[in-house]
Structure formats: structure tokens, C-alpha cells
């Protein structure tokens, strides 16, 4: 592992560990909720720094993923067509058209991370990688949902998480992973996989605690 990758992996590990502690300790929870957007921005910086070629191709992929994720959430919130009927609360920070800007960043981070994981795997078939990645991200969303509701990331207007949410997560993830595949990035280091694992651990631990 290169020095650059070691730095990035250490940052991911430490900040997720500190985040778990902050969300668990009641006296710190309110503070750590306000830090969520900054945490996502830090992870964005880590991924950008770790990528082997910060160029127009990488920036274009990031922009497409951000816009596609943001627009899907916009349609979901304003029409209920995607995901179900929900609204974003304040935890994810600044909003544009009632959608947190960080949600686009989050889609980029998730798609990039799982895309890198599967490009590093033994799956040689692009379709299998897309479907496997979509399953992984849908499983992650199942862990995210209870915590997101508890800590005011978003809330469901009818009080229940609809099956439609998971179906749309799967479809959107598969479509964005299809886009990832078109860019044919070189094999990346283990920073993306580390971030994905950290997300699973973070939300799994909080689900156990709450």
C-alpha cells in the first residue's frame, strides 16, 4: 500500500470510529449531527486525493453521478415517483430545491466505492458487477434507513419505509454503476473499498446500539 493510500485509509478509519463514538454518547450526539455534511466533504476529499488520475474523465464521472443522484432525489421528493413520499430534514446541510447538496456527493461516494470494489473483484462480466453492486448498495440502504430517520437525515411522510424505496435504490445504483463501467478507470487502490466497509460498519453498529 502506498503512503498516500495509507493516509487515506487511516483518515477513513479514524473519522468513522470517532463518528460512532460521537453518535453513541448522548452529550455529543447533537454536535456530531451538525458535522455530518463536513464528514461527507472530507470523504469526498479523501477519494479525490486517492484516485490515481485526477483528470477530466474523473471529474466528468463525479459530475454526472452527482447530478443524476441529485435529480433522482429531486423527482423522488417532489413527485413521490421514485423511492416513495419523503422529505429531507436538516442533518445533511444546505439544500437546493429542498434537496441537500450532500446527497449528490453521497451518491458519488457510494457508486465510486462499490464500483472500485467490484473492479478489484474476480467478476469479469460487467452486468454481474452492476447487479452485485446494486445489491450491495441496497443492503447498505437497509442499514442506513433506521439511523437516517432517527437522526433527522430524512423522514417518510406516511411513517413507513416503502418497498419501493429499496427497489428504486437498486435500479438507480445499477444505472449509475453502468455509467461507472463506461469510464473504464484503472484498477484503484483500497481506499474506495475501505470507505464502503466503514459505511457498513458505521451504520451496523448504530443499528445495534439503537
TrEMBL record:
InterPro entries (UniProt xref): CruF-like
Superkingdom of origin organism: Bacteria
Residue ranges crossing the lipid bilayer per the database entry: 7-25, 31-51, 58-77, 97-118, 130-151, 163-180, 192-209
UniProt signal peptide: none
Record keywords: Membrane, Transmembrane, Transmembrane helix
Protein name: Putative membrane protein
Organism from which the protein derives: Mucilaginibacter gossypiicola
Taxonomic lineage: Bacteria, Pseudomonadati, Bacteroidota, Sphingobacteriia, Sphingobacteriales
